[in-house]
Amino acid sequence: MTQMTLAQLASALGARLQGNGDTLIEGVATLEQAQSGQIAFLANPKYRAQLQSTQASAVLLSEADADTFGGNALVMKDPYVGFARVAQMLDTTPAAATQIHPSAVIDASAQLADGVAVGANAVIEAGAVIGANVQIGAGSVIGLNSRIGAETKLWANVTLYHNVVVGAQCIIHSGCVIGSDGFGYANEKGLWIKIPQTGRVVIHDHVEIGANTCIDRGAIDDTVIEEGCIIDNLVQIAHNDIIGAHSAIAGATVIAGSTRLGRHCIVGGNSAIAGHLEIAPGTHINGMTGVTGSIKQPGLYGSLPPLQEAKTWRKNSVRMRQLDDMYRRIRALEKQLAQDADDQ
């Protein structure tokens, strides 16, 4: 179990220490659930009432809240960021693999740097290059001539097709398929003619990809995930997409081919973005949004109404079906009013 003193945490975070710096911290928790030995955080004012009753050994606080709290605290500008960093320092997540398992199948031409660990029944094909301290979970497959950067972790049953490039310090969760064929076909008199997908998938450093996400290889050019992106579970990224650096894509989102998502974009869950679009850097897209045109200016975009009672929704749905008829009647009334004004 990892333990750090409050003073050590304060130094690592650049936070102001309030209280006993010798207090041992071994885990993180919410204000309501925290017990002795844990550190909690207050980032949302609606939980301020829990501050006085928390059993946490210490709390991460902003300067505004520190004045009213008499217990141990680490005071910093953004307590939530502090919580994330403390959680990393005290992380107890096990390794995806700790050694090269005897059942792993590794081609003689593959290059493995120092510290590589490969789980049971994993396969590393010819020409693969695996960087230092990479962890490859059980049952994973690293395809022909693929490359993985140092300290990247692949959990169990990840599949990298041929010629996939993954950067350093990435995390790829179980069930991901990276580099499968993009959805590319020509139609000849009703018959689908497959177009071989000869591009790659290139994933830059510090990217995390959630479970069961699929990223298609490019048709000719590469599909690219730039540095620092976070991609949730069950996301589909199609061929030739470019996902800009430090963007976040929530679960069950689908991005069709040849779309470019700018840097620092946020896409809410269960959204669908059509192909061949440009999404401006810094754009935020609400969950369950359908994007059918390019977005030229950053902002907050969404296409669905808020939650409402079923009775109200049914009434509004009926009225939606009447919109065209209402439009024609209003246009006719406008013309009649204009004619009457001319006659006067």
Strand arrangement, major sheet: 8-11-14-17-20-25-28-31-34-37
Amino- and carboxy-terminal Cα gap: 90 Å
Q: In percent, how helical is the residue content?
A: 10-25%
- Total domains: 3
Structural class: alpha/beta
Oligomer: single chain
CATH fold description of the largest domain: UDP N-Acetylglucosamine Acyltransferase, domain 1
CATH superfamily of the largest domain: Hexapeptide repeat proteins
Question: Tally of extended strands?
Answer: 38
Please state the second-level CATH architecture of the largest domain.
3 Solenoid
What global shape is seen?
A: flat
Brief summary:
This protein has a ten-stranded parallel beta sheet with strand order 8-11-14-17-20-25-28-31-34-37, with no helix packed on it. It contains five helices and 38 strands. It folds into three domains: 4-89, Udp-n-acetylmuramoylalanyl-d-glutamate--2,6- Diaminopimelate Ligase, Chain: A, domain 1; 105-301, UDP N-Acetylglucosamine Acyltransferase, domain 1; 310-343.
